[in-house]
Write a structure and sequence with these properties.
Strand content: 15-25%
Number of helices: 12
CATH superfamily of the largest domain: PPM-type phosphatase domain
Shape: rod-shaped
Largest sheet: 7 strands, antiparallel
CATH architecture of the largest domain: 4-Layer Sandwich
Radius of gyration: 57 Å
Helix content: 40-55%
Structural class: alpha+beta
């Protein structure tokens, strides 16, 4: 039992090692696919976000000429800002923060602001003691550097709160002097849809952070809880990696503002199909091991039976060999002058028979073919052979011999087998041949006139019906004439192409072999059949018998 278990355990260990290596390989492939997909997603999102922000910058550039020429009169400022807002759908408000004292007719701090709510516009001057825009970092940076700047996102208002960022750009008069800073407030509510429009997994998401690491936009609550988003922001700002998440790739917008984009995946979602496949493989392997153990046990239980069956088969083979020897011993061991026969069984024992012996200077002979093959046919063949010898020792008529054989077989034929039989008596002195046929193949007559079938009356085979009348027929075999008898194993022999030897081939061989002694003629016919079948398995017993006519 231990050795049988090792037969199962060793292959199972090898299969498991292969499975582990395969799992690790597939794990790397999944990671590579994830990174590739992240690169594609982040690139597409960065492109779309940058494009929308660039449209705001484009709005400012395309309207800069109108703004510079419309600032001659302070009253036209609100109309200029409104036109800027209308030129871009994501701009929710705009202002012009003038250099203090720019318009003597106005207050020192003058910052007209226009806000868009739906289709309505609200205009007001928002500078005052409680709002000194000159202290705003964006204003200061634009004034000092003379370049546009994006502010970090911020939340404005409470009903509802709005996430905004402001694009501020310097405005110069026709002489090139800085007279104001124009700010456009950009609504960031569209970022959520852009960030999470291309996600592969139900819980994966994108976040957008400022250059300093503050959250700009993230996923809706339906995709990730705020606590999960906060944890991701901490990781992106240097906190230790959380095992729940895969590696979090990031990229930056290609232009100002240099905000950061990060793609977030949950480890369980990414590798869930791989783990499921691994579990299925393990279950199938365990089932296979259990089935293999069961098969080994079944084999162990049946091994002894198979051994006993092999012994029994060997015993039967030995008995069949003995039976074949006994059957061969029943055939003539020597032949009278001018007679020769052969029998080649298809199995160990066969159902064909032939016999010949001399009594009162006459040759009594027969040939027969029992229906069926194997042991039952061999037993009937032995009985027919014994009965022929017994009856022919005291009867001088082939018809009478067949009549007695038919009565015997009909009285004791539990196997329902029948025999085609041809019996004859040849007088070697004058060549007289008396014969009777019981359904057997017509013999071939070889004479000076050529080769032809001896169309004897067929009669019924032995063992079919009782009280069948049989009649003798006769002819004279002259000097040099011969009678060739055979069973259907000759004419129905098949080659590998399943073609039969046929009577035509038989007659052709006999016509070319006429005049040969009986043994040489039989050997020639046997060799012709062997060449024809070309190694194909023998399907039926093959029996040949040849008798020469009167002695000169």
């Amino acid at each position: 039992m231990a050795s049988r278990l090792w037969i199962v355990i060793v292959p199972a260990i090898l299969v498991e090692l292969v499975s582990v290596l395969q799992f690790r390989y597939l794990h790397r492939l999944v990671e590579q696919e994830r990174d590739t997909r992240s690169e594609i997603i982040l690139g597409a999102v960065a492109e779309e976000v940058s494009h929308k922000l660039e449209l705001v910058e484009t709005t400012m550039r395309e309207n800069l000429w109108d703004v510079r020429h419309g600032l001659v009169h302070p009253d036209s400022v609100y109309r200029i800002i409104t036109r800027l807002i209308d030129d871009n759908s994501i701009v929710r408000g705009g202002c012009l923060a003038f250099v203090p004292g720019c318009f003597p007719s106005r207050a020192k701090l003058f910052e007209p602001y226009v806000a868009k709510t739906g289709e309505a516009y609200t205009a007001q001057q928002i500078a005052g003691p409680d709002h000194d825009y000159t202290q705003n970092p964006a204003y200061i940076k634009v004034v000092e550097d003379g370049l546009p700047v994006w502010s970090d996102p911020y939340v404005y208002g409470t009903d509802p709160p709005q996430s905004l960022t402001t694009y501020s750009a310097p405005i110069r008069d026709l002489s090139g002097n800085l007279i104001a800073v124009c700010g456009l407030d950009v609504d960031l509510s569209w970022l959520g849809d852009v960030l999470n429009a291309r996600q592969r997994y139900p819980s994966s998401f994108c976040v957008l952070l400022t250059e300093s690491g503050e959250l700009v936009a993230g996923p809706p609550r339906s995709r990730a809880e705020p606590s999960e988003v906060a944890r991701v922001v901490e990781i992106l700002n240097g906190a230790p990696m959380d095992r729940r998440f895969c590696a979090i790739p990031r990229t930056c917008l290609k232009n100002e503002p240099h905000w950061q984009l990060a793609q977030v995946y949950y480890r369980d979602e990414v590798f869930a199909p791989l783990r499921k496949m691994r579990l299925q493989h393990l279950v199938l392997m365990l089932l296979g091991m259990a089935m293999l153990i069961w098969m080994i046990e079944r084999y162990a239980r049946n091994e002894n039976k198979l051994h006993q069956a092999s012994l029994e088969k060997a015993r039967l083979s030995g008995e069949l060999a003995v039976a074949a020897q006994i059957q061969a011993s029943m055939l003539p061991q020597s032949f009278p002058d001018g007679v020769f026969g052969s029998l080649t069984p298809a199995l160990e024992v066969g159902g064909d028979l032939y016999d010949c012996f001399v009594r009162d200077e006459r040759i009594f002979f027969c040939i027969g073919d029992v229906s069926g093959k194997g042991i039952p046919a061999a037993m009937v063949m032995a009985e027919a052979h014994s009965l022929f010898r017994l009856v022919a020792e005291r009867e001088d008529s082939p018809a009478t011999i067949l009549l007695r054989l038919n009565e015997a077989f009909n009285n004791n034929n539990d196997t329902n087998l029948f025999i085609t039989f041809f019996a004859g008596i040849l007088d070697k002195k004058d060549g007289t041949l008396r014969y009777c046929n019981a359904g057997h193949d017509y013999p071939v007559l070889l004479s000076k006139g050529g080769v032809s079938l001896l169309e004897a009356r067929p009669n019924l085979p032995l063992g079919i019906f009782p009280n069948v009348p049989y009649e003798d027929e006769s002819l004279v075999l002259g000097e040099g004439d011969a009678l060739f008898l055979y069973t259907d194993g000759l004419t129905e022999a098949r080659n590998p192409q399943r073609k039969q030897f046929t009577k035509e081939r038989m007659l052709d061989v006999l016509s070319r072999s006429a005049g040969l002694p009986p043994q040489e003629l039989v050997d020639t016919m046997h060799e012709a059949v062997v060449r024809f079948v070309d190694g194909a398995p023998q399907s039926d017993d093959l029996t040949l018998l040849c008798l020469k006519g009167a002695i000169s």
